[in-house]
Amino acid sequence: MFGMRKESRSAVAAISFWERLIPCKQRLYNYIQKSLNFSVEADDVFQETVLHAFQYFRSFEEGKEFRAWLFAIAHNEVKKHYKKASKISSSLAPERLGSADTSHLRHLVGEVYRFAEKMKPRQREVFFLFYDGGFTISDISRITGLREGNIKFLLNQARRNLKTILGEQNV
Amino acid sequence: MSEDKNLDEKITRLVRSIEKDIPPAVEEIIQARAASLRLRLGLLKLRRPLFLALVPSSAAVLLAAFFLLPLSQKPQPPISEIRTEFEIADKNIKIIFIQKPDFNLFKEN
Fold it and tell me: Which of B20, B21, B33, B46 to mutate to test the interface with A (most CBs of A within 10 A)?
């Protein structure tokens, strides 16, 4: 009886996990892809992130934001990956970036991604958490463990550089 | 400040204009691995209480064996004699004491 109750509780938890994952998995996948410069290993990192989250879902505290919790796991996986692989094979050729609406827009997108490619991994993660994930600075601080002041500094630096790059291109 | 906001919106638009879809193969692998992981975790959960239940029961069996084993053994026959031998090799002497149950050590004639 007790075993059955326990079993059904874990089944409910599993369903709850997949339901919560659906609305954020696309953003999560893109965050990992972009943080790893669209590396071929990004799919593996995504898999590991989802499976780790599934395995440790019991530790997720109800009432906290699931998306931030999930991205924190992704951040750790990305960090682990950078530790393992000394050099990430990047494939940021504009034709691989997908189809932006016009060729001008495509060029600008290429500029942004080329700029992101040159960033240090930590800065790139903050950049994509903010601009792609849509997280606030305090969320990013919780996800990455960086101080809010540090995040603001990294974002300002990126903003300043991109302003120069995009300003010249008449966005 | 609003200039920064505008720039942020532009960057967000440009960054988000590239969207990669999760490949179906990756989704399938995740589902398969999650299923096996769930099974493994479930088995681990089940295995732990079973193992713990075996500890007191095996202890009880050992205790019972310890106390019941002497009862199942046959009673030993009474000692009929005690034999003590001494040998002095260089003098070629051998002394043998045999103590029988009817022998009284302090018997008076």
Answer: B20
User: What is the per-residue pLDDT across A50-68, written as a single tens digit (0 to 9) for each?
Assistant: 999 998 888 888 888 899 9
- In this structure, is the dihedral angle defined by the CA atoms of residues B98, B99, B101 and B106, taken in order, positive or negative? positive
CATH number at residue A89: 1.20.140.160
Distance from chain centroid for Cα A122: 11
Q: How near does any CA of chain A get to the CA of B74, in Å?
A: 48
pTM > 0.90: yes or no = no
How many domains does one find in chain A?
1
To which residue do tokens 């009284």 refer? B104
Specify the number of domains making up chain B: 1
Q: Do B30 and A51 touch (CB under 8 A)?
A: yes
B3 domain residue, yes or no: no
Residue B67 structural domain: 20-99
**Structure tokens of A97?**
């970036």
Domain that holds residue A13: 2-169
The predicted-structure confidence for A108-149, as pLDDT tens digits, reads as follows 888 899 999 889 989 999 999 999 999 999 999 999 999 999
